[in-house]
Design brief:
Length: 220
């Protein structure tokens, strides 16, 4: 083998290794820019029963279910940073549907989701719910959703919203699960008006959201 061929192989191998390292440590965690179905996605978000702290900055929709460990971590670690930057963190809480006859939500969870969807301004209820372990929450003082046709319909509307979002996000390269979106899914707009989305299960995705929304890496 000539020296030229040898060094050519070395250069190619190093280039491929660098490309793989870039993908492994950076590219695969980047959010997707929404270029298809932007209007449909925006309408689904705006018509959902999100609950908001009412901040005046950029809007970020965060789709969660209460007992999701990745959601708990994201809310605890990232919401203070985003809100310190004035981001209006709009939580869309979902009570997941049963799968194969196995319940994926509790009665208290369905009750609370229905109340949050009914009243966008009830951020204190979200904070109260979020301060208690999911299995210990009893939805005190709230009208039960089970047995109430209107509130049950609200819970189903949340499930349908997730089902409707799934193909729209998938068409833009956003990772989705078999039963719906992955949680937490974060959707926001950059300063130049581009819509972006992230299946933010892994903490390595967080920094990209903060950068786009002007949040610092540490909460004050």
């Amino acid at each position: 083998m000539s020296k030229f061929i040898f060094w050519l192989i070395v250069v190619v191998v190093l280039a491929l290794a660098a490309l793989f390292a870039w993908w492994w440590f950076d590219a695969r965690w980047r959010p997707q820019t929404i270029k298809k179905h932007e209007t449909e996605i925006a309408n689904l978000l705006k018509s959902s029963g999100y609950v908001t702290p009412g901040l005046g900055g950029p809007k970020a929709y965060i789709i969660v279910f209460r007992s999701c460990p990745d959601c708990v971590r994201y809310v605890a670690e990232e919401l203070p940073k985003l809100q310190a930057a004035g981001v209006d963190t709009r939580i869309i809480a979902i009570a997941r549907a049963d799968v194969g006859g196995e319940p994926k939500s509790t009665a208290a969870e369905r009750t609370t989701v229905a109340e949050l969807w009914f009243n966008h301004q009830n951020w204190p209820l979200w904070e109260q719910w979020n301060s208690v372990a999911p299995e210990a929450w009893t939805a005190p003082g709230l009208t039960p959703a089970d047995g109430d046709m209107a509130r049950t319909a609200i819970v189903e509307a949340g499930r349908k919203a997730v089902a409707d979002l799934k193909p729209l996000l998938a068409a833009n390269g956003v990772q989705v699960g078999e039963a719906g979106v992955k949680y937490p899914t974060v959707i926001w707009w950059t300063k130049d008006g581009a819509m972006k989305a992230c299946a933010c299960e892994d903490p390595r995705t967080y920094r990209f959201v903060r950068k786009d929304l002007g949040a610092k890496d540490r909460a004050p």
